[in-house]
Specification:
The protein has 81 residues and is mainly beta. The protein is built from one helix and three strands. It is globular, with a radius of gyration of 12 Å.
Length: 81
């Protein structure tokens, strides 16, 4: 739960209507595309265990993909995002 992102804050809308529950379909070629944030250099992410982290736009794409999966079994090194 500490390595799975549940919700993110973005300046752009990753889903069509923010009041309607909807899933975001990632673009495998550009995972960071919808995360143009109000924060310079990254965005705020809430994790399943309740903690919040700043994720930089320079995060390794493979690490970011691992943070988006549930029970994927990926090892995520400490301080890698």
């Amino acid at each position: 739960t500490a390595n799975t992102i549940a919700i993110v804050q973005t300046g752009n809308s990753a889903v069509a209507t923010w009041t309607k529950p909807d899933d975001w379909e990632p673009d495998e070629k550009n995972l960071m595309k919808p995360f143009d944030s109000i924060h310079p250099g990254g965005f705020i992410a809430g994790f399943v265990d309740g903690h919040v982290e700043f994720i930089g736009h320079d995060v390794d794409p493979e690490i970011f993909k691992a943070l988006l999966t549930v029970a994927g079994g990926e090892a995520i090194p400490a301080g890698s995002y």
